[in-house]
Design goal:
Largest sheet: 6 strands, mixed
Order of helices and strands: HHHEEHEEHEEHEEHEEEHEHEH
Strand order of the largest sheet: 8-7-6-9-12-13
Radius of gyration: 27 Å
CATH superfamily of the largest domain: von Willebrand factor, type A domain
Distance between the termini: 63 Å
CATH architecture of the largest domain: 3-Layer(aba) Sandwich
Number of helices: 10
Low-confidence stretches: 104-125
């Protein structure tokens, strides 16, 4: 008879100090408050009153002093007593995002991308072939070559000839230039759903992955609303949504301009958005239409997608909305670029971005 054995539940042990435990919460709140230290601490104070986060021996006042002492916050220097986050806080937030979204990724020593083309490279694969003139000595598979010599010549009159040599193939290491486009239109916080925070976390995790593991790659981050502009990685934790429409054309034009200057063989655009293109800038004025898909805006957007295809720039769209007519637009956009599209909820966004980035680094060199 099959049954169940019940045992007493023992919660996992948390061996972190009071400061480390509160720091994790504080840094999470810093993302939600876009870097407003006072608001984050106010939220912590309310949570402490309700859930008793602190202990009699370690209060929020002690925590604030430790934040200053450990270099996570500092005075803004204006004499108003306003505290602002330091670069250390931003770097820690990015590392935490990498661990949260992508799991425990170990740093790779050289940080390169492998392609499916074999030749002179830095990472060995399992393929073997006979030695050819011009192969480097470090490619020779010595164990296999000595075994061939033993079989063909015997031990009594052992010799190693060129015909005995086997070569272990290596993979080319490619470089990839990525532009990550983040939609910061007002709809990213509408409808009772915070879409901008997951998008920021994905961007922070991707930036930390590339800067630590794939150091030869480049990542540029741009945001687009009524206009588009480039932001620095250090600004990501504190990115906010504006009262903007969605000028996808401006974002694509800026991304193309950035990638055109890159000399890497593989170029790609990752676009995180939740809505339709609803804005263009024509001769200094904004042309806007939030009511459905405007043919004038859509045609310009599709033309840019086709231009990227001709320039061998792949576009992957991560759509965090599931309206059927928006999905139809994304399908048309993807077809024009011959790219890819993912319709994902916010919880799965990071995994989709990571998997596609890892997959793209193995594509062919152009």
């Amino acid at each position: 008879m099959t049954g169940f054995i019940f045992s007493k539940y023992l919660p996992p042990q948390d061996n972190r100090s009071d400061f480390e435990r509160l720091l994790d919460l504080f840094l999470q709140l810093m993302v939600y408050t876009a870097g407003d230290v006072s608001e984050a601490l106010n939220w912590m104070n309310q949570l402490d009153q309700k859930h008793k986060l602190t202990t009699p021996d370690y209060g929020l006042g002690d925590f604030i002093e430790d934040l200053k002492k450990n270099g996570y916050i500092q005075d803004d220097g204006q004499g108003q007593g306003i505290m602002v986050p330091t670069s250390k806080a931003g770097q820690t937030i990015r590392k935490n995002s990498l661990e949260e979204i992508f799991g425990k990724l170990k740093k790779a020593g050289r940080g390169n991308h492998r392609s499916n083309i074999t030749g002179e490279g830095e990472e060995r694969n399992q393929d073997r072939r006979p030695f050819r003139w011009g192969d480097s000595l470090d490619q020779i598979a010595m164990t296999e070559s000595l075994r061939n010599a033993q079989i063909q010549h015997g031990l009594g009159d052992f010799m190693l000839t060129e015909n005995d040599l086997e070569v272990q193939e290596k993979d080319y290491n490619t470089q990839t230039s990525t532009v990550l486009m983040i939609d910061i239109s007002h709809s990213m916080i509408l409808y009772g759903e915070d879409r901008i925070t997951p998008a920021k976390k994905v961007a922070m995790a991707l930036s930390e992955l590339i800067t630590t593991r794939y150091k030869k790659d480049s990542l540029d981050i741009i945001v687009f609303g009524n206009d588009a502009w480039k932001i620095e990685i250090k600004d990501l934790p504190y990115l906010t949504v504006g009262p903007y429409h969605t000028n996808t054309v401006a974002g694509l034009e800026l991304a193309i301009d950035i990638l055109r200057k890159r000399k890497t063989p593989n170029k790609q655009i990752f676009m995180i958005t939740d809505g339709k293109p609803s804005c263009l800038k024509i001769k200094g004025r904004y042309y806007k239409n939030s009511f459905g898909l405007d043919r004038k805006i859509v045609n310009k957007t599709l033309n840019l997608a086709a231009s990227c295809r001709r320039m061998k720039i792949d576009i992957t769209t991560f759509m965090v909305a599931r309206d059927p007519y928006l999905q139809k637009f994304v399908q048309d956009f993807t077809k024009a670029n011959n790219g890819k599209a993912f319709y994902t909820d916010l919880d799965g966004l990071g995994e989709y971005v990571f998997e596609d980035y890892e997959r793209n680094r193995k594509r062919r060199m152009r």
